[in-house]
Amino acid sequence: xxxxxxxxxxxxxxxxxxxxxxxxxxxxxxxxxxxxxxxxxxxxxxxxxxxxxxxxxxxxxxxxxxxxxxxxxxxxxxxxxxxxxxxxxxxxxxxxxxxxxxxxxxxxxxxxxxxxxxxxxxxxxxxxxxxxxxxxxxxxxxxxxxxxxxxxxxxxxxxxxxxxxxxxxxxxxxxxxxxxxxxxxxxxxxxxxxxxxxxxxxxxxxxxxxxxxxxxxxxxxxxxxxxxxxxxxxxxxxxxxxxxxxxxxxxxxxxxxxxxxxxxxxxxxxxxxxxxxxxxxxxxxxxxxxxxxxxxxxxxxxxxxxxxxxxxxxxxxxxxxxxxxxxxxxxxxxxxxxxxxxxxxxxxxxxxxxxxxxxxxxxxxxxxxxxxxxxxxxxxxxxxxxxxxxxxxxxxxxxxxxxxxxxxxxxxxxxxxxxxxxxxxxxxxxxxxxxxxxxxxxxxxxxxxxxxxxxxxxxx
Amino acid sequence: xxxxxxxxxxxxxxxxxxxxxxxxxxxxxxxxxxxxxxxxxxxxxxxxxxxxxxxxxxxxxxxxxxxxxxxxxxxxxxxxxxxxxxxxxxxxxxxxxxxxxxxxxxxxxxxxxxxxxxxxxxxxxxxxxxxxxxxxxxxxxxxxxxxxxxxxxxxxxxxxxxxxxxxxxxxxxxxxxxxxxxxxxxxxxxxxxxxxxxxxxxxxxxxxxxxxxxxxxxxxxxxxxxxxxxxxxxxxxxxxxxxxxxxxxxxxxxxxxxxxxxxxxxxxxxxxxxxxxxxxxxxxxxxxxxxxxxxxxxxxxxxxxxxxxxxxxxxxxxxxxxxxxxxxxxxxxxxxxxxxxxxxxxxxxxxxxxxxxxxxxxxxxxxxxxxxxxxxxxxxxxxxxxxxxxxxxxxxxxxxxxxxxxxxxxxxxxxxxxxxxxxxxxxxxxxxxxxxxxxxxxxxxxxxxxxxxxxxxxxx
Lengths: 460, 460
Description:
homodimer, five-stranded parallel sheet, seven-stranded mixed sheet
């Protein structure tokens, strides 16, 4: 089936998906969650083969992905996501589905950010049919997850086309430019994301493109934290950096450490040198990791503290690079894999300045001691200015799927700083407001045909 | 001062504007409202000269603009706009200002959509410094309104640069591409808006562009409404079409009338022929009106029912064009001025199909009788699919500045269907979410340092 036909079938299912209503779509999402649980063994087996991620990690990811679908079911039942506002009798506002959503999943989370991931379930929750682009890194896993989605869609009484799938580079581009597609969700590289973003905004009728691209995720270690907790911080940070072989969008790529933190650096060197070599997702990822790491090593004044052990088949051990003290980190980009860079700073004011001048980030983290809090104001303000999540005394890896989560940030962290791709408000990406004026109750959409006290009432 | 310097001064005022807090910014907005009231006479006098709009209309517009600023003051005091969500103790989400906002106002509302209009006051409310691009159609009015804003900004204790102004075509383009600008608000033509949108999304770091471009605002008159109320509807519709010499973004450009509505059409012809010639805003608008009207008249099967009386100095009387019955309205665009087109339909199903195939609209309106309601379901569904506002038995002109208003819609009505440029939620355009994780109370922004019960609490 061509992209045009797949999108056409999806568009044809839009009315049925809307007509299911919030409770019907909540049931659909719970059906997807159950389907993922039921297919767990075969999903994990395919993903182990295709991604080299360990079973325990993939098992946890299936659980996370099923729970994510259940979170949106609860959000539908609450109804707050509908953004209903009423003025007097005549004006009633509600959020309605945008239309067919195209989803491009990531290589590193075949489930949570893949075919059955957050973009797909939040779009279905919103009432939008979905066409996923299967990731070339895990085609069998994608096909199995797609089967789960399709069975849940059919079991909900919807046309099968409410969820569609295409694959291949060219069909991905066709999907973004298809006139029947109303919005795009994307998780992946900055280069790939920007290319598809450019297609989306150059259409005769441009569409929103919610892309999560790249993030350095700087971590600032305060002078006192470095002095008092060198061993503990070295362990915590190394674990965060090498988890999932460093292939996490929130992995710290840059540690800002105070001058004279020799003990912390020594412990980091030791931990990095002792880390187990593990296999990256695929050869493309390994090649790009090697290039990015090489770019770090070739920055003016940079030197390797721990070299990455490499084998041709994509196995890598962790690398630690010390940047030159004068490095302004302009053009510094993430290395997607087990590596981080160290940059020293003189005082917290200088550290705040460095953070403030960075491009958009998913996260900025600060480790500090309680007696230092009064001096951290400008650093936290700088962190807020560039990031979607500001973390204190914890590592940024591990993104909780909760209502208040923001997994986003200014460009290039994402192409839409006002959005999040994880958490309850991720549904807002697929909705737009409509105000009904003077429309009789019987002609209002069901979401507005509720007793008035259920609606927010504006003062004007 | 160069655009770069103006934006630089605005950016330098961001921290002070944020530090004012919600109550301080509410006071700033009330200061702007008071300033508009105080300068009313000189503002109106300049605008009458520059726009040819009548005094009564401009006087009402100043009131509307001042009240708009006061609405955002109330919204700040409520605090709901902050989108605060909390999960347990550790995760707290809040919306923060995007940064410097560039505002391009419209020719037809020198106040409400001009220098002191909705884009400017909603951005200041959000905590974003603003640089306005003065409209070439009313430079003196823009300068006077800018003075009001600047005085209010200084009176609020802010650096004067928190509000800046540039003018001229080239500086407008420089403003959109300046790296210090974080978002753009625009109201104007489809061609001009798309050109600036293209600049915004092609930047090395793209920024959101909230443009309100063009809308046909179709109005469907049901068979029974046409039969029972021909005279009343002809009067109501004509008034809506010729108000402000047809220069309203929500002016009906297309009336869908049932076959055999001869009486309604006869009354419309009579009303249109009797309408007073009035002067358009400027010669550019008059030229574009003539071109658009000519495009209507040259569509296959079209014929003029009432010709527009024209004088070279921009005075026009109302024009009524009958489209061919087979016209699919593909490529049909608004004529910004006193004119509308008639298109006949066979039955309501056909009318619904025509609406569903239209591009994005600010409004779709339906006039019908109560006994017809059961047959209007698909028509209303089609209206929702293409429009930001669905109006029943009222004309679309006259956009209430209320909390529930949507003045937006899918492209080309706007470049961002998820937003509105009028009403309380217009502030959301200038905000992005940040989640604070495990951050001590003393380091949270003031908006989050509230007693916990004030925050929304997520279930997860």
